[in-house]
Inverse folding.
């Protein structure tokens, strides 16, 4: 596979467009999560947690409260309060499915699955149409690109933040 030759200026412009596009996608994803929350009458953090639980199940895995806490950047106590709200609303159940009975598994309810499908399906159809315009090889390369970006950001987030700026 031969890489195209591109001037530094053209490459920089393309990188900036890609960064802008990724930031815009992230902002739109957050906005869509907020709309899902409003549609369900939930706080946006509660909807974010629901989406994490639903996504894990969609991928054939499950989340524990501790893993969810890490995924949505909440303290354990705040996550417990959030899970209490979601359970009380009938959106999730907590179960003990592991050999170690201390491990709690979070599961979504059939009702929230139906609601999530109703809300997200129209967008999913549109996204599928966009993705259908690209070959499997192009999608594999884009997947590798996004995976590398995510891994880079995840690694960077483990590094200490720069010193706080001086206040004047």
């Amino acid at each position: 596979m031969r890489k195209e030759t591109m001037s530094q200026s053209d490459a920089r412009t393309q990188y900036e467009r890609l960064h802008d596009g990724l930031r815009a996608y992230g902002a739109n994803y957050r906005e869509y999560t907020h709309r899902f929350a409003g549609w369900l009458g939930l706080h946006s953090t509660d909807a974010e947690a629901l989406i994490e639980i639903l996504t894990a199940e969609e991928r054939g895995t499950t989340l524990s409260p501790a893993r969810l806490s890490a995924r949505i950047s909440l303290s354990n106590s705040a996550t417990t309060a959030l899970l209490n709200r979601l359970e009380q609303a009938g959106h999730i159940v907590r179960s003990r499915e592991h050999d170690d009975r201390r491990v709690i598994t979070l599961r979504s309810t059939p009702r929230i699955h139906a609601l999530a499908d109703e809300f997200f399906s129209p967008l999913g159809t549109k996204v599928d149409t966009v993705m259908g315009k690209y070959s499997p090889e192009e999608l594999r390369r884009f997947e590798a690109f996004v995976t590398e970006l995510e891994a880079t950001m995840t690694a960077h987030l483990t590094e200490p933040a720069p010193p706080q700026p001086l206040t004047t």
Notes: Residues 19 and 25 are 10 Å apart (CA to CA).
